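User: Hey, my collaborator sent me this sequence without any context and asked if I could get a structure. I don't really work with proteins. Can you help?
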Amino acid sequence: MQIESLQNPRIKNLLKLQEKSRERKNQGLFIIEGTQENELALKGGYEAVEIYICDDIYSYSLQFGNAKVFIITKPIFEKLAYRKSTGGIIGVYKTKSAQLQDLQLPENALVVVLEAVEKPGNLGAILRTGDAANVNAVIVCDETVDFFNPNVVRSSVGTLFTNNIASGTKETVLNFLKDKNIQVVSTFLRDETKNLYDTDFSSSSAIVLGTEATGLSDFWADNSDALIKIPMLGFVDSLNVSNAAAICVYEAVRQRQN
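Assistant: No problem. I've predicted the 3D structure and written it out in structure-token form, which is a compact way to encode the shape of the chain:
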């Protein structure tokens, strides 16, 4: 079926799913733009419901299972697409549960915990690190987090679908980590804070990072097995949370490889 009008009800619904978290949650659906992103979602076991293809651009041969496939014109694609060079494909997928109890962790797990994330782009960047470093889970201490925000999907370049993700309150996340005998290592400045590079990550570890604006709350500092800091050698005293996550995660990976 070919769609040629922006007034088509399906196109109007795509715009709602793009723009409104409430619609994504109510419908249990979300949007994926881009060839790589759609491919990773399919590999990650996400179920495609509808696929919209611009024949003037699309040149791949992904298999979409039982999803309905629609052909759209280039003007419609350009209205829907945030980036014009993403392969001429937009998919609608079912959301997945992101519950703590769904996580299956190995014996010597490496986990990233985020105490809320204000910017979807930072969450996406941390998911890219999680994929690259093969961490076992990325957990957000915010039950209202929208993992399926288009900006998260976009900035993660599809690694949202290759990570194990979950969310919960900080209390439930802490209890989950303790039940799994995972040491809690938090980025927090106190007298007892240690240098990142003097911290042992060889056993099961959760690296906990705070919000972009205020850092971690006292809750995590009071309930951590270790507090760490990244050495700052210049004039500024902080890093973007996604950069800090990458540095901490790769130090843990380095230790584990050695």
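In plain terms: The two ends are 56 Å apart (CA to CA). You can pass these tokens on to your collaborator as they are.
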